[in-house]
Structure formats: structure tokens, C-alpha cells
Specification:
Pfam families: Rhodanese. InterPro entries: GlpE_sulfurtransferase, Rhodanese-like_dom, Rhodanese-like_dom_sf. This is Rhodanese-like domain protein. The protein is an alpha/beta fold and 166 residues long. The chain folds into two domains: 49 residues; 92 residues, Rhodanese-like domain (Oxidized Rhodanese, domain 1, 3-Layer(aba) Sandwich). It is built from eight helices and five strands; from the N terminus they run ααβαβαβααβαβα. The N and C termini lie far apart (85 Å).
């Protein structure tokens, strides 16, 4: 039996490269501890944000899924400004600002057991509103994935209202 095996040049190069890298990294971290810790902290924050975003992604629906929910009695909530709302919104949507979302438990009491579809222009503001609504007991609150931009991209109907609505 052979106990000795010649090391190929590529595996020697890799193992030497790893050793040099770890030595250099240790030396670099000794010289620049704040930079190394800062980089590690940024990496951890990025990972946490990504995990959080993926775990909340269940709380969004496509425009087609939103139509199905609305056909079953879901309420659409539009977070955009009164002017944007007046220029066109999801049919039957109710406009609410951020302050009203914080008071949703009293303002939307009759919709407590129903689905709520929250939309803005792109869907980014709606995620925070859905989080607030869920904390107030609206377990079926979801975002419109892509916001009104996605709704319009699918050539779905919009209602226009003179002067905006509430």
C-alpha cells in the first residue's frame, strides 16, 4: 500500500494560496480592526435585511391575485398622495395616509376579518404599512407586488376621481 501520494501542482497552489490569504487576513485585521469589524457588521446587516425581506415576501400578491381577492370582498388601500390617487387608482380602493394606517384598528374595524390589499407606486411603502396592519390584528393584509406600476403594466383598469379621495 502506498502511504505517500504526490501532491499535484494545482492542489499545492490552492493550499498555499489559502495559507497566504489567511495569514494576510490576520495581519490586515490586526492593522485595521475597525475596518474589518465594520465590514463584518455590514455583511451581517445585509444578511438580516435579506432574510427579513424573504420572510415577508409571502405577504404580497400579484395584480391578478389581487383581482381574485377583491372579487371575494378584499379592500384595496392606496397609500399614495391625494393627487396621485385622483390620477388613477385600483377600482374601489380607499386612500389612506400613514397616520390613518396607524389608526386602522378603529378606521377599518368592519374589515377586520377580510383581506386588505395595500398599494403604493412600487410596493416599497406598502410593506411597512402591512407590517403595521398585521400588528393591529389584520392578519390577511398583503401588498400589491410592484404597486400601481405593476397594475398599470398589466393594463388593468384604474378609476379616476376628481380632487382625490379618502
Amino acid at each position: 500500500a502506498t502511504f505517500w501520494r504526490p501532491i499535484s501542482s494545482s492542489s499545492l497552489f490552492i493550499s498555499t494560496g489559502i495559507a497566504v490569504f489567511t495569514d494576510n487576513l490576520a495581519h490586515y485585521s490586526d492593522l485595521h480592526p475597525l475596518l474589518v469589524w465594520g465590514t463584518a457588521a455590514v455583511a451581517v446587516v445585509a444578511i438580516v435585511v435579506e432574510i427579513r425581506a424573504r420572510s415577508e415576501s409571502f405577504a404580497s400578491v400579484s395584480p391578478q391575485e389581487a383581482i381574485q381577492l377583491m372579487n371575494r370582498g378584499a379592500l384595496a388601500i392606496d397609500l399614495r398622495s391625494a393627487g396621485e390617487f385622483a390620477d388613477g387608482h385600483v377600482p374601489g380602493a380607499r386612500r389612506m395616509d400613514g397616520e390613518q394606517v396607524l389608526k386602522a384598528a378603529e378606521l377599518l374595524k368592519k374589515h377586520q376579518g377580510k383581506s386588505l390589499i395595500v398599494c403604493c407606486n412600487t410596493g416599497s411603502l406598502a410593506a411597512a404599512a402591512v407590517r403595521q396592519l398585521r400588528e393591529q390584528g389584520f392578519a390577511q393584509a398583503v401588498t400589491l407586488r410592484g404597486g400601481l406600476s405593476a397594475w398599470r403594466a398589466e393594463h388593468l383598469p384604474v378609476e379616476k376621481q376628481a380632487g382625490g379621495g379618502t
